[in-house]
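Notebook, student rotation project (T.W.).
Task set for the rotation: take a protein with a known small-molecule partner, predict the structure of the complex, and write up what can be learned from the model alone. Partner molecule chosen: S-adenosylmethionine. Sequence and SMILES entered below by T.W., checked by me.
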Amino acid sequence: MRAVQVVRRMDEGENLESEGRLEQKPEGVVQVDKSRVASSFGRAAERYDSVAYLQRLVADQLLEWAQLSDVTGLVLDVGCGTGYVAKQVLRDYPALACLGLDIAEGMLQYAQRDQSNDAGKVHWLCADAERLPLADSSIAAAVSNFALQWCPNLSNALTEVFRVLVPGGRLLMTLPAHDTLRELKESWRRADTSYSHVNEFPDEERVLRDIAAGGLRVRRAARISRCAYYPSVVDLTMELKTLGAQNATLGRNRAMTSKRRYQDMLAHYERFRCANGKLPATWRILAFELEKPRD
Ligand SMILES: C[S@@+](CC[C@H](N)C(=O)[O-])C[C@H]1O[C@@H](n2cnc3c(N)ncnc32)[C@H](O)[C@@H]1O
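Predicted structure of the complex:
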């Protein structure tokens, strides 16, 4: 397949901001402002790789855990960010073609500029995982690392992946789950009951329900727990900001948080300080190998 690079803008009339704000969500669905997701990650692109060590670790584990050696054709990386996973897939399986798809144009522009590691062979597409501009049964396999938790409606995204996969095609997916950043969440909850300050991550049952609703079958599932340690809460929040993983919940406070509330949150977080003198941040990641049944 010839290497053609494509960066497509959203279709005219697709207004992410209004979609994010106005859509009625069924109970339990994570409420996310997609326009903020796209702009935060777009701005983060230049520095994302310098702090994405957990994302890299998990991506490498995923690709080792679920091999793509039996796949021929086009592999889709959903929420590809700077394109690490897509590029790794091409490094490990040079005969495959790869399409990196992301909602943040800034991420794709950065990914496209990097010509190392066969990056020039990846195609790039700017689109929403919940509305894939791809034909039915056109994708041999899909991967998605640390991305689909940003979809307000995970089952929409999984239904879309199901639609575009060939029968028997697999989706290798990781996403942080409910308990992730629980220390930060609890500290904010104690300091400020009016607003959400931390992104919501879907719980395991919800993810399993959404997988089933999308029509995909679980071949294998795994949980990965990691704890990162920081000298201070500022170090943690700076890292989240550098990753582009800022609070995009619709219930966030759009004005400045008061200094007193912020200081309260810091004081609550101190209660988690460990014997190593550092503050912990928990990550609970779910990994799945999913399949579109052949019948
Ligand atoms: C934490 S980054 C992960 C990037 C990459 N997969 C990696 O492993 O480094 C999450 C990515 O998902 C993208 N994303 C979030 N919501 C999306 C959506 N609805 N459709 C497509 N991409 C989305 C973001 O723009 C961001 O680049």
